[in-house]
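Exercise 7b. Backbone tokens:
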């Protein structure tokens, strides 16, 4: 292969890495939006690249491969740096820790930079392991006809993923509740840690927070327990006297999870299947409504809960604790599953991977670090394995890869394409790892001790304006509906991962032929 061509791919990968870093650190700006802009200007870009290749005496027909390398490197870089906004922005009050994301939990413990470092390491391991796996599969895949063997099982794998996500909400064993007999303000006395045992009298001191619309839960350190009392208990810090009781209600939360899954799926169906009937009625209907849908379900609820938050605790710039190589390896292998099964996101893939592995006996902070490392490795690995699926089958599971398939002609030499894209992944991985550490340290330093409320309000305003600009009035309607639904999971005590029904349910219907208009979302 021409060394000059590889050098141009290298430079394109650096430019793409910088673009992906920009979209990653900007809340609400997804790399798919950048890919759409590149696709719109692809004709002029390819003409310029063709002229550059001719001047270097390189085949100008390889220009689409260079542009594809830029897009893929941007996607890989974005998968590294998009963890920064999820850690440093949108953290709620400590009293709302029941619905807190792992990154926010560590941020409020002064370990935000540690969370970012662990995520960067997980992403790098995920990228490198994926490249090692992809290289032989790109050679053996066509001979083994991997796509023909995997495709019949995709609907069943999607059903299995949905079932595991719902069943994950069951919890383990008996749940302990504290029947309150007396409530008083905390005094200056030492209270032993809670020791739940059925029928045992106890004295506990903790933060009473809302649990479900009408319930209450007491938070003691990193533990929380349901409260029962005739007349209820207000919110705040109290000294509680009462009796421990055990109960088994393992199907309450799965029922809520199933309901939220279907509700989000119905919203997803309306968004994906409703555009054609309203196109031209309002400005913005010619564009995708996935941006306001996903923003409302996953971004705005966290931001709304942090607009009145206090200052970000002082961050420890030296703390570092590695969750271990095995966690990132598990995430990387799960990334192969997420890349081939439509609708499985990095977070939902991590939940599935954790269920299939033996959870270690560790404190919540260590568990949060493991979750972060696995999610980061899975997200980056899924991006790389998506490139593998593109080269072997032509399927495109993300907006970036859809843009690549539109730019690269079907007659392109698969060897040149796969080699260039793997080089782009390698360059972007190391560059993004460096940029993640650099930006993470600067954010931790500049935000330490500052109030997070104004920052959250500014980001919230930016995301609403972005949705309005990109999707118009219908986008705002979708944003309001999806935000309302996105506020439900913490209120009923289930994970926000249930909201991935907005993608999984429409795709499942498409897989089983119940809605043929959804086949394009499957990359077919």
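Sequence design result:
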């Amino acid at each position: 292969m021409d060394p000059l061509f590889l050098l141009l791919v290298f430079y394109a990968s650096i430019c793409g890495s910088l673009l992906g870093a920009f979209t990653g650190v900007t809340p609400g700006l997804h790399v798919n939006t950048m890919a759409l802009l590149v696709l719109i200007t692809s004709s002029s870009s390819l003409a310029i690249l063709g002229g550059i290749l001719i001047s270097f005496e390189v085949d100008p027909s390889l220009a689409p491969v260079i542009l594809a390398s830029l897009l893929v490197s941007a996607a890989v870089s974005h998968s590294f740096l998009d963890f920064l906004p999820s850690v440093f922005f949108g953290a709620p009050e400590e009293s709302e820790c029941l619905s807190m994301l792992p990154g926010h939990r560590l941020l409020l413990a002064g370990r935000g930079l540690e969370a970012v470092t662990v995520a960067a390491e997980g992403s790098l391991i995920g990228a490198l392991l994926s490249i090692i796996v992809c290289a032989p599969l790109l050679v053996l895949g066509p001979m083994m006809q991997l796509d023909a063997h995997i495709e019949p099982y995709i609907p069943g794998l999607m059903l299995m993923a949905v079932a595991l996500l719902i069943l994950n909400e069951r919890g383990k064993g008996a749940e302990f509740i504290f029947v309150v007999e007396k409530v008083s303000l905390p005094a200056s006395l030492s209270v032993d840690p809670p020791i739940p045992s059925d029928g045992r009298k106890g004295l506990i001191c903790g933060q009473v927070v809302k649990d479900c619309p009408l319930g209450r839960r007491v938070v003691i350190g990193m533990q929380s327990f349901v409260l029962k009392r005739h007349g209820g208990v207000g919110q705040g810090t109290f000294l509680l006297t009462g009796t421990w009781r055990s109960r088994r209600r393992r199907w309450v939360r799965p029922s809520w999870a199933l309901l939220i899954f279907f509700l989000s799926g119905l919203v997803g169906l309306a968004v994906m299947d409703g555009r054609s009937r309203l196109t031209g009625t309002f400005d913005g209907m010619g564009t995708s409504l996935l941006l306001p849908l996903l923003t409302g379900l996953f971004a705005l609820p966290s931001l709304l809960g942090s607009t009145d938050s206090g200052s970000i605790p002082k961050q420890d710039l030296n703390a570092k604790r590695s969750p271990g190589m095995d966690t990132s390896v598990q995430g990387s292998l799960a990334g192969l599953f997420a890349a081939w099964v439509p609708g499985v996101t990095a977070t939902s893939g991590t939940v599935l991977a954790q269920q299939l592995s033996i959870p270690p006996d560790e404190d919540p902070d260590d568990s949060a670090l493991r979750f972060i490392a696995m999610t980061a490795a899975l997200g980056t690995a899924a991006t790389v394995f998506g490139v593998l699926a593109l080269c072997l089958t032509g399927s495109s599971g993300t907006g970036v890869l859809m843009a690549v398939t539109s730019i690269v002609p079907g007659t392109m030499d698969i060897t040149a394409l796969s080699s260039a894209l793997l080089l782009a992944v390698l360059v972007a991985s190391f560059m993004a790892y460096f940029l993640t550490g650099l930006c993470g340290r600067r954010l931790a330093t500049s935000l330490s001790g500052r109030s997070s409320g104004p920052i959250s309000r500014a980001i919230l305003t930016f995301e609403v304006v972005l949705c309005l600009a990109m999707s118009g009035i219908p986008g705002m309607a979708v944003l309001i509906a999806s935000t309302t639904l996105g506020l439900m999971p913490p209120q009923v005590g289930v994970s926000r991962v249930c909201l991935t029904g907005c993608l999984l349910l429409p795709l499942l219907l498409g897989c089983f032929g119940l809605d043929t208009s959804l086949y394009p979302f499957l990359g077919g």
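Instructor comment: Residues 92-99, 275-287, 518-524 have pLDDT under 50 and may be disordered. Residues 17 and 74 are 5 Å apart (CA to CA).
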